[in-house]
Amino acid sequence: MVSYFPYIFLFLSVSFKGFALSNEAAQIACNQLASTLGTTLIENSTGPDFNNTVSAPRNLFNTQINFSPACIVLAQEASDVQVAMKTIFQHEVDYAVLAGGHSANEGWDNVNGGILISFERMDQVSYDPQRDTITIQPGVRWGPAAVALEPQGVAPVGGRVDDVGTGLLLGGGLSFLSQAHGFSADNFVELDVVLVNGSMVTATAVNEYADLFRALKGGANRFGIVTRYEVQAIHTGKSEEKTWFGGSITYPEDSFEDLARAISHFVHDNVDPRAVHLSNFARVGLTTTATATLFYNGSTLPQDIFGEFLSIPSLSSNLTSLSYLDIALALAGTSPLGQGTLLGAKALIGGSSSSDDSTDQLYLNTLHLWKNLSDSFSPSEIAISTLDFTPVPISQISYGRPESGRGGNAIDPPLVGYNQIVIGNILPVGVKVVSEEIEDAVRLFLEQAPSSPGIPLFINECDSNQEVFATYGGYDFLKATYAKYDPTRFNIRHTNGPIGL
Ligand SMILES: Cc1cc2nc3c(=O)[nH]c(=O)nc-3n(C[C@H](O)[C@H](O)[C@H](O)COP(=O)(O)OP(=O)(O)OC[C@H]3O[C@@H](n4cnc5c(N)ncnc54)[C@H](O)[C@@H]3O)c2cc1C
């Protein structure tokens, strides 16, 4: 305690200048935290890490250009988060949590005048062969996690892009391993959770916090702060084990409609969980192409599963034998940092390739609406415009059902294969505001593009105005569980996140 004193003094003496933008309660809370945890963990705007932390979110609109926290908490241990939340709760302060910083929604991972809890110093991942589980600290990113675990031949069901972080798990999570192992969150074994009042609980599928455990699989940032994820280890093999085959095929615009049909059919017809698919239509500058990313856990891409994708006229492809590590890093570097981003989610069931299914028309409508939207922007307004489809097959959904013995998830879709759809619009480098025209055009797309009734939207890819929770099979459960764990609605009153609870 004595050794902290000079730092506390320094902090208090500069804090009143640094806190000009923050409210009084936040200033008091920050000063209290600085005296409890010390100024290596609690920094205001004069601290050495402050600028980097506040600029870390991927979306420019979540960085310093819009946000100035009263102070940041650079947590090193779960107990630091407990102390922070106790203080935040006591003083009724606004707060946000920052993990990998990939949220597209403004204010979901940064805060103005409140307290930002950053996990950048809690970035360890380890494998326990006895329990056959992986322990993930919340500051971990999926690329480094895959690299660190490869020597042991295991991997978590994580994300598909290397620099995305663990916030992905709380939204459910879509992985290249999901077809065979469920949503990423279906692989939770144990979670340490700091509740809004600062108390800590450990939740599992079978203990007294089983409801919280389930709610954290899709409930995003509303149910507490997770300080430790223990997840099932998947035995994916080492980098020399080329047990997969695949890569990407790039298509010209003339092939777009055929690709849209193939996307619809794949999620309806395929029942093999070893088959993985992700398709992306993209306008970058003035060039519009589409890419299907296809993997199979085997020595080739079987014709009866991937034949439609393989027969569509294409521009190029890079199909080859791959290790799981190759797959985990296949999309590395595809996520531009520091540019303004807008996302929005839709979901469509698939149609059969063996009948004249009107479902295909919904895919074509979605494609045409996106094409009109992206064509309406000049490259100086929107640098990159995308439309992505990720299949959620029945094999994946079944892992989130209570019968699976994993405690269920909150998303709880019906047992029918569907595609999660996301549109993304990324502004050019340096553009700091979204025009009303762009916002209106994206809003109109989200109103007009079809979604299949009863199919859940994906919170990790939504626009903040979308009522995603209301589309979950577990919506009533989610509302009741939220009321139980946060009876004063502190989280909703003090942090931004999904609406509808
Ligand atoms: C380029 C790109 C690729 C993507 N690829 C995928 C993909 O393959 N699969 C997929 O499912 N999603 C994907 N997403 C969506 C991504 O999963 C979400 O944006 C996710 O929320 C990002 O988590 P994060 O930790 O990186 O971001 P952050 O912005 O740090 O966190 C996201 C949200 O979770 C909250 N949060 C984070 N950690 C905690 C915690 N420990 N406790 C409580 N709340 C917490 C944050 O406060 C914030 O509201 C992608 C997004 C981008 C931009």
TrEMBL record:
Domain spans labelled FAD-binding PCMH-type: 65-236
Keyword annotations: FAD, Flavoprotein, Oxidoreductase, Signal
Protein's UniProt name: FAD-binding PCMH-type domain-containing protein
Similarity field: Belongs to the oxygen-dependent FAD-linked oxidoreductase family.
This protein's record includes keyword Flavoprotein: yes
Gene Ontology molecular function: FAD binding; oxidoreductase activity
SUPFAM superfamilies registered for this protein in UniProt: FAD-binding/transporter-associated domain-like
Annotated signal sequence range: 1-20
UniProt organism field: Tetrapyrgos nigripes
